[in-house]
Amino acid sequence: MKMTNYQTQIITDGKNDTELDLFGEIQMAFKDSSIICNIDMSDIDHYNHHRHLNNAAYPRYFEKGRDDLATINGLDKETLLPGDIAFLVKNAYYDYITPVLENQEVEIRSRVVSVKRARVFLEQEMIYDGKAVSKCAAEYFFMDLKRERPIRPPSSVFQ
Questions:
Q1: Domains of the chain, first to last
Q2: Per-residue tens of pLDDT for the chain, all 159 residues
Q3: How far apart are CA 102 and CA 55, in angstroms?
Q4: DSSP-assigned beta bridge partners for residue 108
């Protein structure tokens, strides 16, 4: 069932008003990220004759994309750590579509899909020759490092 008309309510964190939809999704605008990565030879699986990117190395490339996305949206460690806030991964799921071979250059595209309370959902794609060779769906959250508890996105995210 597709909902095309849903209600919103206004919540406040004391500094900013933010729209929160019926499902607890915070409505914010984020910039997408796109970075180019050269496949490092140390990430190649040398135990097969195809010499493709080792499956354990894919998360490192997606993390580079996430770092870039965080930086351009003010969620980087330089912005958050002074306030004792961290932006941490909770879950990540990878889909390996086509092998990435040595000496290839890939593009990592990252975007925020939604923010629900303390959680941020990302979708990422690893692109080679215009086609997705791998995808990642990840759930991140904000952590108050002093209290060691998840928190809603900090007010700096809304500015």
A1: 31-158 (3.10.129.10)
A2: 333 332 333 333 343 344 444 444 455 678 999 999 999 888 888 777 778 888 899 999 999 999 999 999 888 888 899 989 999 999 999 999 999 988 889 999 999 998 887 789 999 999 999 999 999 999 999 999 999 999 988 776 655
A3: 13
A4: 35, 126
